[in-house]
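Bug #77: duplicate submission created two jobs. Keeping one. Sequence:
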Amino acid sequence: MKSNATLKLTQTETSKTVEISIPNEEAENVTAGILKKNHLRGLYADYCILNQEFLKYITSLKLKPAEYRILFLVMSEMDKENKVLLNNDLFMKKLKISEKSVIEAVKSLVGYKIILRQKLDVSRYEYELNYDCINPQFAFKNKGSVENITKHKALIKQETPYIKQYNTGGDIDLINSNTGEVFETIKQFTKKEIKPKFTIEDLPESPFEE
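Kept job's structure:
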């Protein structure tokens, strides 16, 4: 719908005044307002959110060069909902490595639960398409709607390759679920006891006491 509303901007040394004029016949269909400028619009279209804690898990695995290269390629091709539609031929072509190296590397990444194998239900009456997915606990790529975030939080708990638990010292250990190895300890802040500078006994006696 094209509107005949007009906008007038007046600027002074200290402020700007915006005057919006809406014809009466459009009053019910046109809303006027001021929106805060979004400096991120278009800037982070190809960005995703990464879990630094999960990165610590990955570095503890001591991945082979081919595994790292495939992981980075998968992340660079990751679409919304962390989906990645790649096959062995594309891995071989883009990375210039053998099919054997691709198969072994992908198998390892799936075993570590960095990459998850999923099935995309294309049609109830046709077929299912296999695709790879970056573990939701590792990354998030989607619109930040309440629905998407709620769905993502539910997926995080389903395929976790490590657990978190308190140790005897009160800190949190990150433990590899397969090996039982503690690969990272997160120090917890402890409240220090604040000792008073003086006690009641240190106060001088009142001169008014008998």
